[in-house]
Amino acid sequence: MPLAVVNCGEIVTVAGPARPRIRDEMKNLSIVRGGAMLVREGRIESIGPQMELKAHIADEYEIVDAGGRTVLPGFVDAHTHPVFAGTRADEYEMRAGGATYEQIAKEGGGIRSTVRKTRAASEEDLFETALGRSQWFLRVGTTTIEAKSGYGLTLESELRILRVICRLGAENRLRIVPTFLGAHEVPDEYRGRTGDYIDLVVREMLPAVASAGLAEYCDVFCEPGIFNGEAALRILGAARELGLGIRMHADQLSRSGAAEIAALAGAATADHLEQIDARGIEALAHAGVQPVLLPASVYTLGSKRFAPAREMIDAGLAVVLATDFNPGSSPTPSMPFVLSLASTQTRMTPAEALTAATINAAYSLGRGSEIGSLEPGKQADFVIHDCRDYREIPYFVGLEPAYETYLGGRLVYSRHDRP
Length: 419
Description:
The protein is of the alpha/beta class. It has 16 helices and 16 strands. The protein has helices at 50-53, 89-96, 101-106, 111-120, 123-139, 155-170, 194-212, 229-241, 258-265, 278-287, 295-300, 309-314, 335-346, 350-356, 359-364, 392-395; strands at residues 3-12, 31-40, 43-49, 62-65, 70-73, 75-80, 142-148, 175-183, 217-221, 245-250, 269-272, 290-293, 320-321, 382-385, 402-407, 410-414. Helix 7 (194-212) runs parallel beside helix 8 (229-241) and helix 8 packs parallel to helix 9. The longest helix is centred in the middle third of the chain and has 19 residues, at 194-212.
C-alpha cells in the first residue's frame, strides 16, 4: 500500500548534487517545513509542502501522521563490527584502572580475546545474538550498516561470520553491506609468523570469500606491528583483482603513513585517522578517498585525540561519520551519540555531522544513488524522530530519538510497540 507521510514539522531531505557533499555543501540540508512525503512501491514518489501535495493523496494511500515531528533519512553507519561472541566489559574496567588499549592487546586481550570467544560460538548462536543487536540500530534511526568480519581469523570462522552477516541482510530489517576483514589482527597461532598469515589471507581466504559472494569490500587494519603498509597493499591488491572494493583502518594508533597507503591503493575509504597529519589529508584529497571518522572509539578508549574533521572539511574531503560498533573500543550502535561527539569534540556543525552520517556515508558504500537522502526515486528509508528540530538529535545526548523507522516504506521499528 502506498504511504502518505503527513504533518511533518520538518523533512530534512539532504537533497542536492548526485555525489558526496564537500565544504559548505555539507551544511545545506534542503529542509522542507510543514511538509509531506508520498511513497509508492518502497520508493519516494514526491516530497513538498503539505498544502501542495494534499490534492495528490488519494484514498489508496495509508496515512502516516508524523504529528509535527522531524523526518530524516535513515542513518547510514559505514563502519561496524556487529557479529561477535561475548563482551569485553572486563577490559573496559581495566582501562578505567589505567591500562591502555595497547597494553591489554599485548597481554592477549583486545581483538584476540573476542576472536577466541567468537571461534567457540556456533553459527546459529552468532546469528541470534547479532539479530538482537540489529534492533539496536533501528531504535536509534539507522537503516543501513556496513558490517565487517574479523573476529574469526581462520578460513572457516571468517566464512561463518560473513554468512551470518548475509543472513542478517536477508531478514530485510536493516540494509547491510558486508566487508571481509580477515586482516584485522594476527591470530594467536600465527604470532611471530605474520607473513604466513598474510599468505593465508591472500591465497585462501580472499578467493573463498569472493567465490562465495559473501563480501562487497575488503578491509585491512594497517598499523605497525600488525599489518604494515607493504602487507596492506598486498592484501588490498589481491582483493581488487578478485573484484572486491577496498577500505582501510588507517592512522588510528600511530602516524604511520597509512593514509597515504590508502590513497595509493585507491581505497574507497580510510577509517579512524586520529593520528593523520596535513600530508595525509592532502593525499586523501588528491586521491578522492573518503575519510570515515569514528569519534565514539576515541571516547571509549579515553583518548583526547580526535580526527581533525575541520581540517578535512576545509581540504574538500567528503567526511563520513560512523559508530565503529564493536565489543572493545566502541560498544555503541548510536549514531545520535556520534553526531554529538562530532559537534562537541571535532567542531562539526550539526548539519555537517548529519550529512556525514547520511548521504556521504551512502556514497562511501557505493549506494548514494539509492539511499542517504530523501529524494524522488530513492528508497524510502526514513525515520520519524520525536523532536521538532533536527539539532535536538545530537543535543539531547543519550536518548533514542527514533519514533518510527521505515525501510523501503515498511515500518521496521516503532516505539509504541516496545514493552
